[in-house]
Amino acid sequence: MQTFQQDCVDLAVRKYRRGEIGRRGLLAALSALGAVPMLGGDAAAQAARQLVMVNWGGIANQGFGRFYGEPFMAANQGVTVVQDSTGPSAGRIRSMVESGRVTWDLCDSSASSSNLLGRQNLLTRVDYSIVKREDTLPVGFALEYGAAPYSFSSVLAYDSSKFPQGGPTSWADFWDLRRFPGTRLMRRDALATLDAAQMALGKDPANLYPLDIRACLRKVAELRRNAVYWNSGSESEQFLRTGEAVMGQIWHTRATVLERESNGRIKFIWPQGLLQAGIFVMPRGNPGGELAQRLLASMLANPEPQVGLLTLLGNGPTNPRAAAMVPQELRRNNPTDPENARVQVVLDGNWWGQNYQQANADFIDTITG
């Protein structure tokens, strides 16, 4: 019997080391076998000291591992931080928590999702006795159920060759088909799109919220016959690159790529950009517990890795001390540079967390109806 038990233990450990099961699965299997003590603290301790960060794949996987995972491991001997690029959608987080099989510790999310999932008791509150609130931007970047170690913006990008007399300077110009003819590009998502529509309607950006959803949807409908819609960042680039759209609302990281590769033909502007918090959340019941809180704290407290992420990915730092460390040549493309942040609007994640589901459903109906 003991030999059979050891064989089962060895099989579970091999599966864990090959990545076929997570640490919670390993510990559950060992516990069922009554075998945790048999490991002498080796694999079980390793499993208990591993943190899993989840992102959306691509180069972000490398960036978060290099600039956030590696420094934390260096400062905490025996802790392993691994990257999972499965894609931490709200649905996947919900499924994991409700099934009681949580294997993720920190998930790349958004302010609106953190608000929505938090209200549904699917997330762990940020412990601000560990995560120092003053290390992040003061408004909209330190929330009850998440905090932001990076930022990004939705900006107005345009093909300057189409407008020799001068390009658009506001969302009102974006909606002005007479002065600026041509196809518009918007994301197939209400978030940030309705905010731009509200500014196009003339509401003061300093007092943008709450949005008038009905009025914003009517504004969106004005462009329905002159608009195309993107689903991914790469797709947003392609619409402008090929000339299928003459201007669009896209992420600043994508606009930076287009501006560089087109030698300035495709430009973008910061005024009335929607500055957004790159929020990380912790699923309720995550195996890392306090250790996950400490990893999040280190991501916020250290400005140097945030500047490194800007260099690699174009995402803006959120620690106020980082601004002075950004090389001069990168400041033009940094959303949280004081000069750029000053003319933008911080997207209200709390408002969107309460209104996103219905507003987005109505938005999709508007553009497809």
Q: How would you characterize this protein structure?
A:
This protein has helices at residues 2-17, 23-33, 43-48, 59-75, 90-99, 111-119, 171-174, 193-200, 213-222, 233-241, 252-261, 290-301, 303-313, 328-331, 338-341, 349-368, and strands at 50-54, 80-84, 106-108, 142-143, 146-159, 184-187, 227-230, 247-251, 266-281, 345-346. By secondary structure, it is of the alpha/beta class. Strands 1, 2, 3, 4, 5, 6, 7, 8, 9 and 10 form a ten-stranded mixed sheet that branches.
Condensed summary:
The protein is of the alpha/beta class. The chain has helices at residues 2-17, 23-33, 43-48, 59-75, 90-99, 111-119, 171-174, 193-200, 213-222, 233-241, 252-261, 290-301, 303-313, 328-331, 338-341, 349-368; strands at residues 50-54, 80-84, 106-108, 142-143, 146-159, 184-187, 227-230, 247-251, 266-281, 345-346. Strand 1, helix 4 (59-75) and strand 2 (80-84) form a beta-alpha-beta unit.
Rg, rounded, reads 23 Å
Low-pLDDT runs of 5+ residues are: 35-41
CATH class of the largest domain: Alpha Beta
Helix/strand order, N-terminal first: HHHEHEHEHEEHEHHEHEHEHHHHEH
In the CATH hierarchy, the architecture of the largest domain is 3-Layer(aba) Sandwich
Percent range of helical residues: 40-55%
Instruction: Report the total helices.
Output: 16
Mean pLDDT score = 90
**Beta-strand residue percentage:** 15-25%
State the secondary-structure class. alpha/beta
Topology:
Blueprint: H1 2-17, H2 23-33, H3 43-48, E1 50-54, H4 59-75, E2 80-84, H5 90-99, E3 106-108, H6 111-119, E4 142-143, E5 146-159, H7 171-174, E6 184-187, H8 193-200, H9 213-222, E7 227-230, H10 233-241, E8 247-251, H11 252-261, E9 266-281, H12 290-301, H13 303-313, H14 328-331, H15 338-341, E10 345-346, H16 349-368
Parallel strand pairs: 1-2, 1-3, 6-7, 6-8, 9-10
Antiparallel strand pairs: 3-9, 4-5, 5-8, 5-9
Helix pairs in contact: 1-2, 4-13, 6-16, 8-9, 9-16, 10-11
